[in-house]
Amino acid sequence: MTSDSQTPLEKTTAAPRVLIVGAGAVGAFYGALLHRGGATVEVVARSDAEVVRAEGYRIDSPLGDLSFRPTAVYETVDAAATGGGGGPDYLVLAVKVLDDLDRAALIAPAVGSATAIVLIENGIDIEAPIAAAFPQAPLISGIAFVGARRTAPGCVQHQAFGRLVLGDYPRGIGPASHRFAALLEAGGMAGKLTDEVVTERWRKCVWNAAFNPMSVLAGGADTRRLLAGDEPLLRSLMQEVCDVAAAEGHPLPEPLVSASLASTRDMPAYKTSMALDFLAGRPLETEAILGNVVRAAERHTTPVPHLRTLYGLLRLRAAAQAA
Amino acid sequence: MTSDSQTPLEKTTAAPRVLIVGAGAVGAFYGALLHRGGATVEVVARSDAEVVRAEGYRIDSPLGDLSFRPTAVYETVDAAATGGGGGPDYLVLAVKVLDDLDRAALIAPAVGSATAIVLIENGIDIEAPIAAAFPQAPLISGIAFVGARRTAPGCVQHQAFGRLVLGDYPRGIGPASHRFAALLEAGGMAGKLTDEVVTERWRKCVWNAAFNPMSVLAGGADTRRLLAGDEPLLRSLMQEVCDVAAAEGHPLPEPLVSASLASTRDMPAYKTSMALDFLAGRPLETEAILGNVVRAAERHTTPVPHLRTLYGLLRLRAAAQAA
């Protein structure tokens, strides 16, 4: 953390410029931290743009009132386009990773020659299309451990946690990652830098690929119901994710599955983000969270029959929901 | 087929007496055939008793009008009790096999010293509790291939098929099975006698254990949607059922899975009985159709990871439905 970031309001001219694409609950939360940390924060916020332009974000949080007014609010990425200039210092992409969304094409208009791209998104193998489309741009992969939800247009409730694990994709910690983590820390929530961010992505996926789809297929069940109903199945699913991670060159420590189950058991019952999306009729991140794991397993011929069954059923269920 | 059964109406005094317990669509359909075949048919029909007593069953069928009036209609099995006598010649049990129903206790009041028990029910290992409770009674295991549904109290629409595969449990074809098949044939639909009825039960289970739970977890999807969505998963599930059947001493011919998938592909799209139960909020035969297969696999340590995943999810889904 530099002295600059400790006195952000006095240094507006030198403030890094951040553009957040997809400012839902998670995007707005990290936008608020970056704003507190001294960044100039602009957002692309489709449905909430009008409200946010008029009133800013209202963000209730255990950290205090994180409400803030972005410097600029755009309805589209085109409206935030660089016009050929250097672009924002950071473009933070915090949209859901869905099949029918070309994320690289989405952000292209706003990626300038000086822009580092920051992904705050769930899933496995989600960096590759961005890295391929912008080979020159520093690419920071971020994994959010945060409970936050949008309660109304422009209104976000930060419920718990908030840690962002981040590092360069595919590995290492470059200067852009360091500066971004320092901004977060100045904003009140230290980021955790890692030089093996893909390993960290697999670590989170061990939980996500099991609990998220299972909660949907169980009709929107919460964590406690899943654990009480079939902990052995959760364990089998999580172990298969570990097997795939190892085959991909990201071995995870042996007791991860048991520790993860134990910590979930100790938490209050809660519904996964995919269960909430499902219950609200929103599209699911099926491929990012589960499909890409199954495809990685197929590349290595790692047996994942439990995950494969879960995946087939989740796709069928999602198709029925969409129909 | 005997000459007696060809002229049933002239032989009422010698007519075998049949009591049907659980006269829903399937029970009423076979009751109608037995009636046409010359049997005296009594029924225990809880919710429909009043209507059936007043008006009989109205049964529309491709076979013609199968409507009939049972000789007696009871609301409970107790009301049909033997009072210590020989009891009916056949007690046909056609209720769903559900966890919270003790089927042996249900029928006990009406099983007499001369009664053969006929099960017309789905699932695996469903005979054992009945065989244990009534070791003296001939036990006929029947597997119905019939499309029939209850359209209103006392009203049944027979849609298609109707074959009953039957034989003595655990194997063989005794005189009671022969006579029962002859009654059905006299009624217009030949039963198919088998001396390995448990093998036949496994054969039907290959389809049922895959399609029924999958249709529920896919949100009530029909056969065509399941095949289009994930035929490889259906194939894996069906192959695992074959593996368990073989471990149980009931090897099934190699091309069964492919042939079964092909014939389903050739049929019009339809919803499984479990999907219909699920969509109507009725309890599911989870254990009879899938749980007992998984437990058989565990006895033989036959790997069934796809079935095991399906089973865990179906139990969770059913629990959510019931909640």
Tell me the greatest interface: A-B, 27 and 27 residues
CATH class of the largest domain in chain A: Alpha Beta
How big a fraction of the residues of chain A is strand? 15-25%
Proportion in helices of chain A: 40-55%
- Find the CATH superfamily of the largest domain in chain A: NAD(P)-binding Rossmann-like Domain
Summarize the structure in words.
The structure is a homodimer of 323-residue chains. Chain A has 323 residues and is α/β, with parallel strands linked by helices. Chain A is globular. Helix content of chain A is 44%, strand content 18%. The first copy, chain A, folds into two domains: 3-195, NAD(P)-binding Rossmann-like Domain (Rossmann fold, 3-Layer(aba) Sandwich); 200-322, N-(1-d-carboxylethyl)-l-norvaline Dehydrogenase, domain 2 (Orthogonal Bundle). In chain A, α7 (197-217) packs across α11 (286-299), α8 (223-247) packs antiparallel against α9 (256-266) and α8 runs parallel beside α11 (286-299). In chain A, β1 (17-21), α2 (25-36) and β2 form a beta-alpha-beta unit. The N and C termini of chain A lie far apart (50 Å). Chains A and B meet through α8 and α12 of A and α8 and α12 of B.
